């Protein structure tokens, strides 16, 4: 979840979310990745950001339903997306034709697909809090009935905190000698858990990048799951026990996802109950679980609670890594020297301390342009191995760990073919949890 910046930061920092965003974007900062390669670049945020108190002008409501799980009114708003440009649509239509012909050889030359356009879809709780943002492609099949097809674009991560979670979490794994390229190629059977679903951009991104990954998602609110399926292009087949009103064709998942959806399992359950009865051992866990009042439930970070104890047992004992999205609960001074480092208030510090207590080591990174913090908890013995050598060379433990993480950024970027650089998300406001 991304908190509206003005409610967490001072006006000086909030300005970075509007007119200064393009100048501050990774593309403009002279990084090695060009903005055209990343459809989720922050410079596009003006297309979908809306207003602090609502969706803003030009938004179309495509889903609206009341939640009984504490999220209030769950809505999805649509905004036109400028990329991909219309001249690139025929290539995608050809891809759909070819995929359809492989599934239904008898329909070759009969079924035709036409793209209607690309949109940003933004989920909000109570019309205020932006819960998640995805990009979808909408097209239609010219023959048959119920021919509308809606597909979330799994390569697009529109929100910086999701990129921060991916970058920080994945660079920690090779630091603990986990072979990331083998998981990408499918030689390793990687297991990932996502607590909190939103629009589903993170699990879809991971499933599309890791051929060897089985991804389990836990979401307590069936209305959130319905919104992701009906309005945000998430495949319906991974969801168990959901009564969906989707008008998408029954074969949409097979047509669009080519088996990716078969490695995703979405459980509508309470995270505490799920982890208590789960038997899987996870290599990587992502937690982004805020309710309609923007509260991170205490039971998900209470050091003495059942959830944390069970989670510790479910994470791999050598390289297991847990990544948590947090919101800064302190005001940010309106001075330039504070713009890359967010202060951690009492509550955030307590959360970080709880995860460090259970996993041995933890670090944080401040998310660019948003008042979010990425917390990574991992097995300290693995990630910090060699720190003694660093100390003899005059490196602090903090600098040694940061250097080790940064040295793996290129491994992650190349293995996954990322359209954005990991390095800036890892080093931004980096701090060890003491």
TrEMBL record:
Residues 17-29 have a biased composition (Low complexity). One of its GO terms (biological process) is methylation. Residues 17-39 are annotated as: Disordered. Keywords: Methyltransferase, Transferase. SUPFAM superfamilies: S-adenosyl-L-methionine-dependent methyltransferases. GO terms for molecular function: methyltransferase activity. Belongs to the methyltransferase superfamily. This is S-adenosyl-L-methionine-dependent methyltransferase superfamily protein. It comes from Panicum virgatum (Blackwell switchgrass).
